[in-house]
Write a structure and sequence with these properties.
mainly alpha
Length: about 80
């Protein structure tokens, strides 16, 4: 019976170490860098700012679309102008 308890203890200890090495330590390292941790895929992702994608500074209003792109009448008139 003593051996059974020792085997159960060894397996539980190994599982605990595997959990910490595989899930806890990578999460702590990722969050320490300021990145985002995804527990489902165990992925450390770097956040991307919207301003990096759009080229617009935060708080700046969006640029209006050209009239030709929004109104088919003006697009047709712009296409026929010499």
């Amino acid at each position: 019976m003593k051996i059974v308890f020792l085997v159960v203890f060894a397996v539980a200890s190994a599982l605990s170490v595997a959990y910490h090495v595989g899930w806890v330590l990578p999460r702590q390292a990722c969050e320490a860098k300021g990145d985002w941790w995804d527990p489902d895929g165990r992925v450390c992702a770097h956040p991307v700012l919207i301003s990096d994608i759009t080229g617009r500074v935060a708080g700046e209003p969006p640029k209006p679309a050209p009239a030709a792109a929004t109104n088919p009448e003006t697009a047709k008139a712009a296409a026929t102008k010499p």
